[in-house]
Amino acid sequence: MPSHSLNAETNLNLTFPLPYRVLFLVGLGILGWATNLHGLDFSGIDPISAFNLWSEGQKARIASRQMPHGNLVITSTPYMAIYKIFFVYMAFCIASWTIYRSCTKGDDVLVDAFGYIPLVTILVIIIFLVCPMSVPLKYEREKFLNALGRCVLPSSHSPIEFSDVVFADIATSFAKVFGDFWLSALMLLPGNTLLAAPPEEGWQRWILPTIMSFPYLLRFRQCLIEYSSPPNATRRPLYNAIKYATAFPVIFLSAAQKGPSRLENRLHGDGFSIQYWPGTFRLWLIATIINSSYSFWWDVTNDWGLDLLQKGQRQTESVHRRTPPRQLLLPRLQFHSHTSPLGRTSNDSAAPDISTEGQRQSNQATGTGTRPHPWGLRSVLLFPLPVYPLLVFLNLILRMTWSIKLSSHLYSVTDGSAGIFWLEVAEILRRWLWVFLRVEWELIKGAQNGTSKGRANSNGADPQYEMVPTSSEDQILFHA
């Protein structure tokens, strides 16, 4: 490797070592989730209903249909607590990094001497997360731990919640971050250094890819549970499981290319030796192409419901079903409002008339009239039109780079390099954008079927929620 690249890598590890980069990426994920909830709420999509964030008392009241007017309360916005978590978390991490920088002063000799500072920081965060005592943000921490428990140990007898699906999908975008966390733990062990990752020899080189594949295994199992559940009558969950299974060859074929010295070696002009299993590179390349293309197709067609990669126009629901307008009638238990679903006045031209949209979809079903929506999209769009082609383009580019980032042999000498770090940031950004359209399509499907995707009671019953248009000022919930 050229000397200037080594110097840049050393400077990065001196000023912003891998443990702090991991903490930063986790904080970026928290901020992304808060802005997801905030953006959905701002767009008129109720995140509480979308992700089934009701309290246990509210779920019981909804399930029993008990709606006494005296117990109605105005809900608080759920994203404010997540913003609070982000600011407290980042303030603590920045304070720790500032102390670390003031102690090390950019001296590579002092870096390892004060390596206990990031270690203590990580331990304090983990202890605070799992602390059972009534300390600040207890409710939010319990919700996170419960969601984590449901994803790690899902019940084969209970339906998979939509919120758990999104949670596990977000975890797949943090696969490399989980791997970096493992490398950070190794760096902080006595005898190792924060300036470089310890060498992976023998069976130890399989630990990192195993950790990186764990989020895909969780999502793979969720798909199999959905496929085997009695209400399911399609093979879509099975095809979705295959999508996550295509990530395993990418990860493990990459690790196989970091073989021991007895394998074939090739020497580059800069004197750097690459070791690999003969023929594995071609298999890895094929695996990355399959994983990237399949994942991109699934995102556009099934997660977002767009017609771009369909053989023909998506067949609409029969016209006798309740057809949502362009602005979604959200599945909330609320009072009727005289405003449009996005809080606009009734004469706002930006909110299309229900009958007009229904007629357009009827024309599409009968084959008459003009095209009801822009080519490659769908008839119901809740976000501005330019958002969709932009997100499709960004998703295509970042899907290709994501498969490369899962391949540890491409950065085996410079683990945690600046390039890989920015690829991790880009993947978190891609997932942040993905959530908006994923939630939008899930609620549109629920509206077309006349049901809500959220589970209202703990025994798995799925009540039929009434589709009621409300404004953002009238978000009324039932108090336990």
TrEMBL record:
<feature type="transmembrane region" description="Helical">
    <location>
        <begin position="20"/>
        <end position="40"/>
    </location>
</feature>
<dbReference type="GO" id="GO:0005737">
    <property type="term" value="C:cytoplasm"/>
</dbReference>
<feature type="transmembrane region" description="Helical">
    <location>
        <begin position="81"/>
        <end position="101"/>
    </location>
</feature>
<feature type="transmembrane region" description="Helical">
    <location>
        <begin position="113"/>
        <end position="135"/>
    </location>
</feature>
<protein>
    <recommendedName>
        <fullName>EXS domain-containing protein</fullName>
    </recommendedName>
</protein>
<dbReference type="GO" id="GO:0016020">
    <property type="term" value="C:membrane"/>
</dbReference>
<feature type="domain" description="EXS">
    <location>
        <begin position="199"/>
        <end position="474"/>
    </location>
</feature>
<keyword id="KW-0472">Membrane</keyword>
<dbReference type="Pfam" id="PF03124">
    <property type="entry name" value="EXS"/>
</dbReference>
<feature type="compositionally biased region" description="Polar residues">
    <location>
        <begin position="356"/>
        <end position="369"/>
    </location>
</feature>
<keyword id="KW-1133">Transmembrane helix</keyword>
<dbReference type="InterPro" id="IPR004342">
    <property type="entry name" value="EXS_C"/>
</dbReference>
<feature type="compositionally biased region" description="Polar residues">
    <location>
        <begin position="337"/>
        <end position="349"/>
    </location>
</feature>
<feature type="region of interest" description="Disordered">
    <location>
        <begin position="337"/>
        <end position="371"/>
    </location>
</feature>
<keyword id="KW-0812">Transmembrane</keyword>
